[in-house]
Design a protein that fits this description.
mainly alpha
Length: 252
């Protein structure tokens, strides 16, 4: 637990740093945001595959494959169910065309942003915490570092939609701080869950990986490919993925 708390603060702090950088780049065009978010998606994709799903297979024993597959789909389904209740961040800003339950337009926009960010960031924090259950500290630090790395561009791109939705600077700052708190809480929850019983570790690793894969496919990639900068976004994703591959190769 001694190393997990500083790591949790680091993962959460990266989200806050990214959010505050977002104020400096709030007037950047969609191409910049798409490239940054795609890079984060590439990092997340590598972290999910190399740091969560493959270790789930390696630690699952006799039933490794069905446990891992079940975990992936359960994780994705969990985020899917939460996502049906709350619109994506770009939906709140008025540039999305998804349908959601009636009455959401009556909710406070700040509250919607807070809930949407929690749905997006909590699984990432849980993934960072769960990775420490493998007792491979170096690999867990690589995963946590990768999540922290992708939190910076992710944090950057949430600011412009919030300001564009008419939310004041002071409330935007509070939401930015909340992004870090969610990541810290998620990391501690993930670590405590696997600490209680190593038997759930393979499923928990795959579950965390499934949540991240869902977020990448359902939100991040569609968002980065909807403003005419698909080519740049694709190469940016590959750069993020490759960077994590290098880290895993040398440090994992």
């Amino acid at each position: 637990m001694g190393i997990v708390l500083p790591v949790a603060l680091g993962v959460g702090g990266a989200s806050v740093i990214g959010a505050f950088l977002g104020f400096w780049f709030r007037k950047a065009d969609h191409r910049f945001h798409d490239v940054m978010l795609s890079f984060a998606a590439g990092v997340m994709l590598a972290a999910a595959a190399f740091g969560l799903i493959l270790p789930s297979l390696e630690s699952g024993g006799r039933f490794a494959l069905p446990v891992t597959l079940a975990g992936i789909f359960c994780g994705a389904l969990c985020v899917n169910l939460m996502d049906r209740a709350v619109p994506h961040l770009h939906k709140i800003a008025g540039v999305d065309f998804e349908t959601h339950p009636n009455g959401q337009e009556k909710l406070n926009k700040v509250l919607l942003f807070v809930i949407a960010i929690a749905i997006h960031n909590l699984p990432e924090g849980i993934a960072a915490g769960v990775s420490f259950g493998t007792e491979n500290t170096s690999e867990a630090l690589v995963i946590a570092g990768g999540i922290a790395l992708q939190n910076i561009p992710e944090g950057m791109v949430i600011i412009a939609p919030m300001l564009g939705a008419g939310i004041s600077y002071s409330k935007t700052v509070l939401v930015a701080l909340f992004t870090g708190i969610v990541e810290v809480a998620g990391t501690l929850i993930g670590y405590l869950a696997v600490s209680l019983s190593n038997a759930i570790l393979p499923f928990a690793l795959a579950f965390a990986g499934g949540t991240m894969l869902y977020v990448i496919s359902d939100e991040m990639i569609p968002e980065t490919h909807s403003h005419g900068s698909q080519r740049g976004a694709t190469y940016s994703l590959l750069c993020g993925f490759s960077l994590m591959l290098v880290f895993d190769y040398f440090l994992g």
